[in-house]
């Protein structure tokens, strides 16, 4: 208690710390409490679970005036769940001090009318999401003119591209006398640059956030291909039976798949997702906190600021590309000096990503293998060799199971595939024999779309048997495969009509040409009906076209 009062806290707040079981202040509290009591702007950063929330709440509760009706402090968060948690922690510390400080939450998931009823009580501290507090301030529902502190918790998220506009409007609405405090487990240079416009000579109070990763958290690495990860969870639950396990996945779609599988296996699990309403998320957290459910499945929504007690294991179902995201996930265990285990469930690509994370933060991943219901250590060389062998084996199985394309299958465009294997060969056989020209072949080719069409008259080589008969007229080919008999034009004799097809512009000299043409047309008609009476000529295909 004495150490808390030496930092400048009131006796009531120091006694509240003792009543809650805190004997000495943490390192970040020793740095942050005097700065906030001095109403300095500050950047505060340390690992998760090191007491950052009480580091700024304790000095605010020390200096706040309960007799005033003005709003004196706001705490802004990127998510509703984190805001609800901070509101509970603020109420818990305030009740322990015995001070009549009024506290209200401002969440987008709460109807505005009910929100305004709470604000009618003139709270001293408002804790909420950035969007809702901004809307209340610009709408005139809360007055920020007397605000003394504005705390941005998990501020690196508040200054990302999707939230920076809302955060900027809110900071611009604050009075110049308001102290601005930025709090985060990680403090990227991008966050400092984007927030520097609203901070005046800030103090930078940073404790290496990776220290807790190296001291109180053990990091395991299991190899598992993407399709085998769900089966790994079943084996892990049967072998380890974690006391309280937090499972992270990168998307809601992946969580949906995991949830359905674990429900089928009978896992004691609940889900925390962004598409759930506030009541469902609160119930999920209460079931997990009370021990009614030993597994909590969530996205990185649950990696930011949530204080989940006694988490024994954290599993990253898919390893994030950003190293800071893994640090936030792992920080959900090993809190307040307790020991925890963070597990990376990774394929070969993610194992390389895990190596980079370990090098950046200076801790090792212990290679593990789950065999016969027992978790074993394995040498890194054997671990990676086994991982490469397993994934190479899966690729071989996939290649062997691939079906060959049937050469007889037709393409979607309607053109048949050209086979090259026996019994269909190219370069020899009946399909490659030269075909006779003439009206019969042309008619046959029109009926069989699978066969190559003959060349046009300009391209077709004229051989001994392909020279057209001087008395034959061209055969018209219409939209159907039935041949139409050509009729002479009106006011012309059959001989004149036939003569026009021999030599354009000339007059027929043969007086019996019309009778020959008529007889040829009748013979073609009989051949189309049932074939010639005399039978096929030698060397030609016989029978009628089917």
Spell out the key features of this protein.
Rossmann fold, 546 residues, globular, alpha/beta, 15 strands
Please outline the helices and strands.
Layout: H1 2-6, H2 11-19, H3 27-37, E1 42-45, H4 52-63, E2 73-77, H5 80-97, E3 103-106, H6 112-119, E4 125-129, H7 130-138, E5 149-153, H8 155-158, H9 164-172, E6 179-184, H10 189-195, E7 203-206, H11 211-215, E8 217-223, H12 229-240, E9 245-248, H13 252-265, E10 269-272, H14 278-290, E11 295-298, E12 313-316, H15 323-330, E13 340-346, H16 348-361, E14 366-371, E15 374-377, H17 380-400, H18 439-447, H19 494-499, H20 513-529
Parallel strand pairs: 1-6, 1-7, 2-4, 2-5, 3-4, 5-6, 8-13, 8-14, 9-11, 9-12, 10-11, 12-13
Antiparallel strand pairs: 14-15
